[in-house]
Structure formats: structure tokens, C-alpha cells
Design a protein that fits this description.
118 residues, mainly alpha, two-stranded antiparallel ribbon
Length: 118
């Protein structure tokens, strides 16, 4: 079954949000690891990249260290407050993506059902 351009975009959107959520959870899990540096993705840049043509050998979103965070004496810069906010934002974005997919499938089912009546 071929999918619509919107569903293809939403699939990529959900992949970026899922990748980001994994990074945030990993950051939270390493809050007490000496020398651990917070990693994140530039959501807007990754979404722009996801909208473009699929890249050969693409392995998902590009994780980068987050500059400008305060480092503790042990070298760790994870802020649970920051990570909690980013996690909430990412969960909201994921839910919105799921809602758009539901709407698109509903639209497609409606179009198919109306076509049967003709």
C-alpha cells in the first residue's frame, strides 16, 4: 500500500520525536554519571532534514552535546529540570503527530467509503 505525502512526513516527524525522547531518557538515566554530557537533537533542523529526500544510509537523528549548560564539579551537566521540560515537549509533539495520522487515516477511510457509494 502506498501512503500519502502527509503520512510519509508524519512518519518522519514521529521518528524525530522518538529519537529525541530516547536521548532525553538517556540523559536522565545518566544524571549521576561523572563526566556525562547532555545530548539532544536540534528538533527543527532534524525535522527540516526529515522533510527532504531520504538520505542514503541515514541512521536517524543526529545527537549533539548541548552547549551552555552548567557543569557540576564531576563534569556532568545534566539538568533534571531541563530534561523534564524537554520530555514533556517531546511527548506533546508525539501526541500531536499521532492525532494528525489518525485524522489522515479517517480522511482516507471516508474517501474510500464515499467511493463505494458511487
Amino acid at each position: 500500500m502506498s501512503s500519502t505525502p502527509l503520512i510519509n512526513f508524519l512518519e518522519r516527524f514521529l521518528n524525530v520525536t522518538s529519537d529525541r525522547q530516547s536521548l532525553v531518557i538517556n540523559n536522565m538515566a545518566n544524571v549521576d554519571t561523572p563526566g556525562y554530557r547532555t545530548r539532544d537533537v536540534n528538533f527543527r533542523a532534524e525535522l527540516d532534514r526529515a522533510v527532504g529526500p531520504p538520505e542514503e544510509g541515514s541512521m536517524g537523528s543526529v545527537a549533539r552535546k548541548v552547549p551552555g549548560l552548567l557543569q557540576r564539579p564531576d563534569g556532568n551537566d545534566v539538568s533534571i529540570d531541563r530534561e523534564g521540560l524537554v520530555l514533556a515537549e517531546t511527548q506533546m509533539q508525539f501526541r500531536i503527530g499521532i492525532q494528525f495520522i489518525r485524522s489522515e487515516f479517517h480522511r482516507l477511510v471516508t474517501a474510500i467509503n464515499e467511493g463505494k457509494d458511487s
